[in-house]
Amino acid sequence: MYNQKIVIDYLDKNNELSKELIWGEMYKTDQYFVKSIPFFAPNLAFDDLIQVEIENETLYFDDLIKPSNNSTLRIVFFNNDTTCIEKILTTLESYLCDWEGFEGRHFYAINIPEKINYALIKKYLDDNSSFLDYEESCLSEKHLVDLG
User: Could you say which of 2.30.30, 3.30.70, 3.30.1490, 3.90.320 is the CATH number of the domain covering 71-146?
Assistant: First the structure.
């Protein structure tokens, strides 16, 4: 299969229409698996199966078909302490979480795989709240259950 860019329209924090481009891997002509971690679009996670509309050879997100049971977090770091940032990202990797970040910024999208106990991740992030803040952009049913 091959990856293509998919346009997702969403409302930003100011309630204005915005766009995000994500990578998708074709499953069927109008169905794709999400293959990048969404930074801004809410309620989507890595490996979700989505429906797209195709207009003038551009793919547009239409609907979620089947959630992957992965979750998406957004993390922002409060300072430029690269040692601290690297330590936190490395710890998240040890929990088998993947991440994507903007070069030169302190904003990251984190993928929490289904098999991971989200309560452990949440505790770790809460314990580091003096360095960062995070948003649960997309929490799967499985990870909600992890929280009890």
Answer: 3.30.70
